[in-house]
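Human: For the file, kindly provide a plain-text protein record giving the amino acid sequence and the backbone structure tokens, at your earliest convenience.
Assistant:
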Amino acid sequence: MADYEEMTASKKLAGFIEKNKKAFIAILIVLVCCLIGYIIFASVAKSNKSKNLQTLDEISYELTSKSSELEDAEIEARITTALEKAAPLTKKSGIVGTRANMFCAELAFRQEKYEDAANYWKEAAAKAKKSYLAPISYFNLATCYENLGNVDAALENYKLAADNNDFVMKPHAMFSYGRILETKGDYATAAAAYTELNDNFPSDSWAKLAKSRLISLKNEGKIE
């Protein structure tokens, strides 16, 4: 009985497939076309990324090549040209956009255009949110905000950098966070940040500096 039912079901399936063969073939063709399209898209995207990164490397090379022989005015002209050439790449997504924004941020900072540098670092952080480049961007963004006198924004971004356990400059970020808290007069929270730094990285030079700040704050009667 079971064999009979199985044969009947098989015949029905075979009949259904035969009846709708053209439709199945059409669906198969669509699926194959989609797969080919994806492969082509992925290949083109990869190729474009490589080309864009190469373009960025070329811009960087043009900027730095034999720069030691140049006068200040010539270096500034090169920086302006580099910024103009790299600008379209800052709009890209992924690693291309991240690197381009970081590159432009460094140049803008060198020109003491801290607001422009901050905007580039902010874009870099947004594009590299889940990568190791994010805390680097937050740290440098905080530095730009310090130069702009925006201590609240600087504090926020130093904290973002300090909270990332994979950040190689984590102790520096932790100290900077405490230092900004001091400038705001929040000595208790600054002391807590310094203590955490000293507890977690006792042999680090920034931790030793944090320890000296704790001693100073106690001697000045700002903390118990």
User: Anything to note?
Assistant: The two ends are 89 Å apart (CA to CA). The CA atoms of residues 126 and 133 lie 10 Å apart.
